[in-house]
Queue: 2 jobs
Job 1
Amino acid sequence: MKTMEVLIELKNVKTYYFIPKGLFKTIAVRAVDGVSLTVHRGETVAIVGESGSGKTTLGKTAVRLLEPIAGKIIFEGKDITHLKGDMLWFRRKAQMIFQDPFTSLNPYMTIRQILEEPLIIHKIGDPSEREEIIAKALTEVKLSPPEEFLSKYPHMLSGGQRQKVGIARALVLRPDFIVADEPVSMIDASSRAEILYLLRNIQREYKMGIMYITHDIATTKYFSDNIAVMYLGKIVEFGPTSKVLKNPLHPYTRALMEAVPDPDPSNRFKERKVIPGEPPSPINPPSGCRFHPRCPYATERCKKEEPKFVEVEPDHYVACYLYE
Amino acid sequence: MLLEVSNLRLYYRTIRGLVHAVDGVSFDLDKGETLGLVGESGCGKSSTALALMRLLPKNVAVFKGKIILDSEDITSLSEEEFRARIRWKKISMVFQGAMNSLNPVLKVGFQVAEPMIIHLNMDKDEALKRARELFKMVGLSPDFVNRYPHELSGGMKQRVVIAMALALNPELIILDEPTSALDVSIQAQIMNLLKRLKKKLGISMIFITHDIALASDLCDRIAVMYAGNIVELGTAEQVLLDPKHPYAQKLIASVPRLREDRVPEFIPGAPPDLVNPPSGCRFHPRCPYATERCKKEEPPLISLEDGRIVKCWLYG
């Protein structure tokens, strides 16, 4: 793992949203508040968190659909933090797969048009070459024979098939980096694994780096190499997937895992250990450790000082005073 | 026996033709028992619930079958009788996404009190007092009765909706994906609340979900639905640990597990179009064990020795 080539590196990235309050004031929503993260070529990093954790904002910042207000983003050795205008080369290399396959495909375009558009924008191939690229992408996402799908419209496909089109659209440009934002959360349970295996196989073949954003920590077990757990704009735990799931350190990570049931009939006889309350607003995050109001182990220190990110075992990091 | 549903059918009229949403569904439910209706989108689980509540959309073409509640055939009741005696009083429901349909301009306490004022002829103060008790029961501070929906978080609103469903002391409460819009940590809180209510009130529940792992958190028995049919019905132990119907087997194998080393599988293909469902067994186009017979003849409901019911030719 150590020798893998760095694809994208985020250094202390902050992305805030500013919303007007009254006539003259604005307030900042600190969606991503100082995140450092590296994705290597051929690696999948899962970003796990609940709504409001900033995981989607982080993903959009990584593909520069959003511009951070502080920090640095280095992609293949180039600083792209504040890239403006001249970013077509980056757009070609970094693609996003969206959560909702029902709203992220233009309903007035056929599958052929949806897949050809990025090729036209990036001036790739002549019409017959493009036809070939599109057919290959459809075959890769197991929508075959391609001719059967080319002239269809999105509404004629099932949710799973639509998400496959979303993946094919990201693939036609042969990107190096893909941000997959909850790619299976709106898909039937029986098809989720199929979509995730598809992504994993394509990634292995083309050595892409993937940022897999999800609220479902159970899927990370099979589809990621590293996990970053986010809470209120910060990463609270990071490490190799197997280590994090076997030995979760942060009380929040443990609570997230405890909340997910396996299909076990004895579950109904016992209550789950849950963390009380709900995540506070990122407009005015708690002092000290942001998790302290919900944490069963919180001390006075947690309320005042913010814990540093420390390496507890090789490659496994946590921001919590329990491990200092 | 609290509830007996036999051969329930519900077809919708659309421009493309008749949608066979619920096609011969039978099950029963004991007092204090929770039954899970589990299946993918479009399998007919929500339509089954709407039929029990008799809240049918205008385009219903066929509504047939027998629903017996407390030894009374409620299918033969007039609309007026059903409204006055059954709906909300005996069977209540938490709708999917209901927390987002609270009235934004009314205090949530009043919204919980309102059905008691209308159905039980309580005066307003008495109903509000009972609303405060209900709030306590669902884990909300009684003072929250004076709040408006926008002053509550998603998890709190879901608790309000559950309080509303409990207001008239129903015997059966139907929960349609009650946690699907919530974060996992809040989902676990709501599931704990439902477990406590089930134990404390001894109320019967029908829990509708696409997530069979979540069903294990609450259900005593589980009915797996596919394309308008129940394909397997048994105790939680039978269905979760040793499923018999190939679809139930596949559905359980597709769950990613956190605590076990079992790689999740998937079911190739997509659920069928219910305007024109496949002949024979509706699962045959996706079934690894399908034979010629499965394509032609619809399998009957087969009772196995252990008491469960399976709709599959492998067992008959």
Job 2
Amino acid sequence: MSFLKIENVIKQFGALQVIKGVSIEAKKGEFIVFVGPSGCGKSTLLRMIAGLEETTSGVIAIDGEDLTHADPAQRHVAMVFQSYALFPHMSVYDNIAFGMQINKVAKPEIKARVEEAARILQIEPLLQRKPRQLSGGQRQRAAIGRAIVRKPKIFLFDEPLSNLDAELRTQMRVEIAKLHQEIGATMIYVTHDQIEAMTLADRIVVLRGGLVEQVGSPSELYDHPGNLFVAGFIGSPRMTFLPARVTQASDGGISVNCANFANPETVIDGPFARLPRPGDEVTLGLRPETLRINPEQPMLRVKVDITENLGGSTLIHARTEDGHPLVMSSADRLAIGSGDTLPLSFSAVPHVFDKDGNNVR
Amino acid sequence: MRKFTPQSALGYIVLAVFVVLSLLPLWMAIKIGMSYPDDVFTNAERLSTNAFTIGNFLRVMGLPSDIVLTAYRASPIDFMLSLRNSLIYTALTVTGQIFFSALAGYAFARMEFPGRKVVFFAFLAATMIPGIVLFIPNFILIKELGLLNTFAGMVAPSVLMTPFAVFFMRQFFMSAPKELDEAAKLEGASPFQIFWRVALPIQKGPIATLAILLSINSWNEFFWPFLVGRDESVRVMAVALSDFMSQTGKGTPDWTGLMAAITLSIIPVIIMLIVFGRQIVESLQTSGMK
């Protein structure tokens, strides 16, 4: 049974519809990440679950209870804000204890629960400090502490790491993953950073323009993106897209003609859920790590714009003969300069998207 | 050190002239306050006097003094009583106005209710109404309520809120991060708990500024207390001073006593300006008002 059930919810601000009928379910203990570009409605959807935004229509149920129009406090959810939203005039202790003080929990219990949260988050020495005396990472922990003590049914995170520097972000990402393992709570996490989505999520919900584009595990989304948008959004560096035309099609595979390929007829193996027809315009998608330098049997030639040496690997930004940008990653440290021409082949079957952008597999 | 140029010298000279001009009346008040009554007219045109005394100051505060006025002069005011009344009047007005204006400002900044904008603009429009227009209806109302010569009647028109204070607080509440309110809401705080425990405490700076501005206004307020608070038991300093002046009786006004009392009455305001002056200027700059 689903623990969180969002059914066909719509959010309208005046004439503007920002959530256009979204349905999502989450199991108890699941880590769900909402990901999408700015303005896709992911934060609005999170705030609707929290009760901070009124739901125009649809149903939001938590643990079997319809809470669509309930007050935020009645939903038993806790939220960690992007800005942390720590009360600046209170100590860390009082920040964490705030909800319990409001709800008149007995003092010894407040103390015990605050100390327990502080222990989990390793902020015990900071309890008497004010938020302004804390570093970004410490503030983040204090904000998470305030969420933990309430023992909520669902944790909501609204881009919690976006104010941290790159190193701290990686560190906190791991800590949030650990926290999820340790307390096993249901978590909904909003981010525009697809790396956070890939590393943290049990399941990712990709949103665009107020609609769900695809829901699935990180591997599902990476290996089987449902459409061009998901294919381009999930994965860093981005997938390379090349236009092509289908010349022959059978269940076993299709032949395509792509202006950039050395061979005018390139066979792409099936099976396909929706078999393209000869003459169809399609888009081929190539992941950076599936491209290889192959002087013996080159499938396409590209001109290198720039190479990035990442230490353990190399990223090559290049252009095809007709000017399409292409990114390739290699585990080797390659001695390649700008302007070099590289013969490439691909080691995995390319993704094929029809002219509406949907994956045909 | 900044370079001292002829231009800056000229600037300093102009500023110095203005400082002298603005301080001159104050000095004249202090000078007369420190003169013996018989010397007032003999040295009227001079910046100094023959002999200085603090007798007048002691006298108006009801303390033993070497200056004893002869019978034909008016009876002195009860300075300490007026001081107490001024403090009560100011404290009531300022605490009331801050509390209620903060409540209203918070509501206008954060709460959603029908007609919020209309009501707020009505409030703003009220700042356009000259206060003097309201004196007569307010006076009649207070009189009918039987509140003449009571502190309740004196503070009634302004104790709840003033448009300026509401506007001032609203601006600061609007610039505070909304997430703080939302975080408190998620924790189960009621709207009043959010206001009292989160929104209000983070506005300490603006509240202090508002308190100072309102205190100076209330302390100097004359006309309304003059209308409704004539009785000595509630008469504030500004009114007492004017009564003092008009008590000419058959003889001359008690100029030395009056000036001594005026000097004493501005001391609280001056102290406040010295202590909080920088903060007032900073807050007014950040709020972009006046």
